[in-house]
Amino acid sequence: PFTAGRYHSLVIENETFPRDMLEITARTEDGLVMAVRHKRYKHIQ
């Protein structure tokens, strides 16, 4: 594990997140989505 910071203010909103296609793989401490993975194409991150 390591400490990292955000370099931009872009986030995915929970209300419009395509849960059928993407899996959330990282969130900030306050719950913002920071990383996702495609459910079918696991190599696309």
TrEMBL record:
Which cellular component appears as one GO term in the record?
Answer: cytosol
Note the InterPro entries from the entry: Anth_synth/Amidotransfase, Class_I_gatase-like, GATASE
Q: Where is the Glutamine amidotransferase domain?
A: 2-42
Biological process terms from the Gene Ontology for this record are: L-tryptophan biosynthetic process
Any one GO MF annotation of this record: anthranilate synthase activity
Give the record's keywords alphabetically.
Answer: Glutamine amidotransferase
- What top-level branch of life does the organism fall under? Eukaryota
Q: What is this protein called?
A: Glutamine amidotransferase domain-containing protein
Its taxonomic placement starts with:
Eukaryota, Viridiplantae, Streptophyta, Embryophyta, Tracheophyta
